[in-house]
Specification:
Elements (H helix, E strand, L loop, with lengths): L12 H17 L11 H10 L1
Amino acid sequence: MKDDLEYGSCGSIRELRARIDDYIAYYNSCRYQWGLKKMTPDEFTSHLLSA
C-alpha cells in the first residue's frame, strides 16, 4: 500500500485517512488479483459464500 498510495501531499490526518479509505475500497472492489482466480477480493468472497 505504501508504494501505491501518494501520502506526501496530504495536509492533514483527515485527508490521509480519506485517501487510505479510498485505496482500501479500490483494492477490495476494483483490483483484480491473480491468486483469487482473477477476481477482486469482494467477488471472490461472494463466490465462496454462494458455493
